[in-house]
Amino acid sequence: MNTTENIPVMTVRKNANDYVENVDNTTKVISGNYRFFEDGGKIIIRDTIRESIYGQTSGINYVEFKSFPGYPKLFDGNISYKFQSGNKVDLTVHILRISFFEIIDNETWTVELEPFTEVGTPRVIILLHSSKIFNQNKY
User: Fold this and answer.
1) d(CA 43, CA 53)
2) Which pLDDT value is given to residue 35?
3) What mean pLDDT do residues 55-72 have?
4) Per the CB 3.0–4.6 Å rule, which of 31, 71, 83, 105 could disulfide with 112?
5) What CA–CA distance (Å, rounded) separates 130 from 3?
């Protein structure tokens, strides 16, 4: 892993390799956690945009990176002006810890995830590293 000013620098794929997802059907908890990074930690994601699509109805930008094709990341809001196919990007992000309840198949589940927020913006960036958790449910 590279570093810039003691901040880890990695592609989306390398970052995804550090993310562990779990679905516990007994306790009804869905979780996604980093093995080596913690809440408040800073990371630089350095990658190239493969594709970026903005869903006007959802207000979500679906961005696929060259290092991890087939697994688009979800960004809150229209950032298509910034994320266009072929653009090389450096995203300096903070890891957050969020928890919320979700009704899935008429049962209340607890969802605990570690998304990002881009440093210097109030926008929360939701980077889900695989669709495994959400394909099992309604996402």
Assistant:
1) 24
2) 86
3) 87
4) 31
5) 24
